[in-house]
Amino acid sequence: MSFRRDDGSDTWIAPQLKINYGIAPHWEFVIEGQGEHPQFEGARSVLVDNAVFLKHVVREGTLQEQTGPSIAIEFGALLPGINDEHGLGAEVAGIIGSQWSWGAIYFTAAAALTREQTGEMFLGTIFEGPLDWTVRPVAELVYEREFGHAEVFAALAGVIWEAREGLAFDLALRHAAVDGAPETEIRAGLTFAFSLF
Fold this sequence. Notes:
This protein has a domain at 58-192: Porin, CATH 2.40.160. It has strands spanning 2-6, 9-24, 27-38, 46-59, 70-78, 89-100, 103-113, 119-128, 135-146, 151-164, 167-178, 181-192. It is an all-beta fold and 197 residues long.
């Protein structure tokens, strides 16, 4: 769940879902989307950022308790929303991550054809504190550009609390400049893992 303020308008964001399901060794099926509820008269709630992806671990590394960097690719479709984001798009991304005793770094580069059939690029880096800390800091830097439309610079800082194995809570503050206009977001969420078999 998140709360976002930009240009004097407020928006509640819930739910924010990202589900990863392992379908074969080194392969995951990913589905994501979020509901947004603007807080002004006449506004309609929307379901946006809907997408389905396949994620493949190309190289096992320190994130899989091996040596060297972990490398993955992700590709799939950007789906239409409800009350917004009509049309279909596509995205492909490369992800490199490494983990050390002092923390972990993840770098993502992505290219997309948006639902409006324009080109988009994304660059993001995530920094996390030591995995063995019960509460560890996290930070993220993002650059995103939809060619001919919006340009976004964003930074996030927060914490992740590993309550127990397979269950974590997070709290973060994100600040962005969207074509120079400020946007601030408070995020709170949880991540859990389970096996069906």
